[in-house]
Amino acid sequence: MRLFVRLLAAYNMLVALAVTVKSVFDVPQPDWELLSWLMAPAVVISLAAAYVFKRRFDAEGEGAGDTVRYLDVNIHFYAAAVLFVGYGYQWSAYLNDLAWGSSGLSNTGSLWIYVDTLVIMVAAVMGVRMWNAARKM
Question: Please, are residues 123 and 16 in contact by the beta-carbon 8 Å criterion?
Answer without folding.
Answer: yes
